[in-house]
Amino acid sequence: MALSGLGLTAPTAHAAESDISFSNVVFNNGKPVVVGISAEVEAPLTYTVKSSVSLDSWWVEAYRGTYETDEYELAAFTTRWGCSQSSAGGYTFRDCDETMTIDPDSMPGGHGNKLVNSDATDWASLGTAIKKGGGYDTDLLSATVRLQRASRIQGMNASPEPVAKGGTITVTGTVQRANWTLHRYDNYGGRLVKLQFKPAGSSSYTTVKSVTAGSTGYLKTTVTASQDGTWRWRYSGNSTTGASNSSTDYVDVN
């Protein structure tokens, strides 16, 4: 399948025109986009552009700031996989399927081209279409996409291994989240984190208890050993921070 990178620099402001409109805009299947401090993240984007005039190009983008005067864009670039086309009532409808590539170190405009912590919020959107023979239409759209800082749980450990049945297992770890401004992960204190267990032979985890991390993000709790199985921590996230699971630790119970 052919790939095409789309430039996302919009023309200057222009009133919406009735001969072109954008609809059905969905970023990342309606879910927040979670970004760490360095790795690129890909997020799907789908939308429909309706027009009664011929078009040279069109695109939808997510942005922050004041449109035109202090605007910066979420995607470093966008790949268009295809736009299925149909016609009705004198209009052409293009249903487009694209992928946005988001790079925390390559943000088009704003903040020195890097994400900062205040970017963990809802981003607005706009659609632009360039007409054949000149002219364009730029519409501010109602669709938004939420950006979240990645979380992680480091140092997961369940011990001792093995342990006698009825004995005590101590489980530890540390909750962290991405600090985009300082380009590092910081300990994330005060988080309510679930301790989960998957018995040997099972395919699913159940929550055993919830533990609140200390001010430094440190987690520690004890449980009674009853059967062989795998332990992990699960943080469900919040409005600015994505969910995450720790690594796992299997404990034999004798």
Structural summary, described in words:
With 254 residues, this protein is mostly beta strands. The chain contains no helices and 19 strands. It has strands at 5-6, 20-27, 33-35, 41-51, 55-66, 70-73, 77-88, 91-102, 122-131, 136-149, 151-159, 168-179, 184-187, 192-199, 206-212, 218-224, 229-235, 244-245, 249-251. The strands form four sheets. It has a five-stranded antiparallel sheet with strand order 1-7-8-4-2, with no helix packed on it. Strands 3-10-9-5-6 form a five-stranded mixed sheet, with no helix packed on it. A hairpin with an 8-residue loop joins strand 11 and strand 12. The protein starts with a strand and ends with a strand.
DSSP strand (E) fraction? over 45%
From the alpha carbons, calculate the radius of gyration and give it in angstroms.
Answer: 24 Å
Order of helices and strands: EEEEEEEEEEEEEEEEEEE
With strands numbered from the N-terminus, the spatial order across the biggest sheet is: 1-7-8-4-2
Total DSSP helices: 0
Report the structural category: mainly beta
